[in-house]
Amino acid sequence: xxxxxxxxxxxxxxxxxxxLRMTPxxxxxxxxxxxxxxxxxxxxxxxxxxxxxxxxxxxxFSEYPGLLASIKDLYDxxxxxxxxxxxxxxxxxxxxxxxxxxxxxxxxxxxxxxxISELSIKNFIYVTEGCVHYPHLIPDDFLQKIQEKIKSFExxxxxxxxxxxxxxxxxxxxxSIEDIEVFQVLEREILRFGTEVPxxxxxxxxxxxxxxxxxxxxxxxxxxxxxxxxxxxxxxxxILCRLLNVFSxxxxxxxxxxLYISFEKVIVENPDDYFVKVPMRSLSIAHAYSKLEGxxxxxxxxxxxxxRIPKEILDDCEALGYLLNSLLIKYPGDDYENxxxxxxxxxxxxxxxxxxKKIVIDxxxxxxxxxxxxxxxxxxxVLWTPKDLAHFIEFKEELEKYGLLKAT
Length: 408
Known about the structure:
This protein is an all-alpha fold. Among the domains are: about 1-140, no CATH class; about 330-408, no CATH class. The chain has 25 helices and no strands. The longest helix is centred in the N-terminal third of the chain and has 14 residues, at about 45-55. The protein is globular, with a radius of gyration of 26 Å. This is FAST kinase leucine-rich domain-containing protein.
């Protein structure tokens, strides 16, 4: 019935909307559309189609001054005519195109609150994605309604819908009103797809489940990692790296030795994909394997294919600090350690104090013998306050020895 209704709506698509979608996009076209908002009356369905067109046509509202204001005016003039579908799409568009207007977000949120329980899966997904834009503005009771709605669709999600729900819920989750049943529903849903569950859905599910896995252990991630091991050779490099990021989030995942071995084999057999063509992928590899004992082949791959830090990483302050920190957690051999340490000191001015402190503590923890590091450590210009020291009390004497304690 829903499919027939949608088909009819497409068939009767107004000619002016067909023309809008068929003509080439340009700033002038957007300006003309904004002018028409002031001069013409649009039906709810037409507004929904316009929102879809804008999603496909513009990067963000900031590219077109006045566009967001025109959309808000259009909403204020016609909001009584907006059906649920159009309202949800408008809320979603505000997030997709980065609306800076928090008041408009709240206005739409308040309008949607009474409608949540009646929404279709499609429209509910638009709402959950829209909520990601300003999660701190979502009231607890609204979020609780979202949680109830997620549970109500059990047995009805397709794999794409489950992927989108996991992605959004992960970003709006709030521990203070945690509902463990939501995660249990997501677990049962992903298991319902069996071995046919898409890798992207596994990825978003694991990211979401990581919110509670320490407090509520589950065997479902283990089932997922068995599937991923069987797919390892076919994974796109970006997906493999994103999976490494997920599995490095929790110590509970470090036991999945078979997964790390199978991923290591893929990386070793395809070094260009992970170290040369897209050097940024190496960050995920360095970080994930730094948390595990052994896997010395990964270190040798860095030495062989990344003898110097690539320019793409050197030019990215956060990426550089992240990579140096990851590679210095385990002893990489004298020559490579010296290269990393020299890179650290040469670029210390652009690496965050937090990252530099982590490097210092990790070097102390593994009792590094790198003279260049200890002789120049004060040039990192980081000091530990008494409050900082509470978390690293076992290193107090060494920090004091190198003059890294801030005077009280």
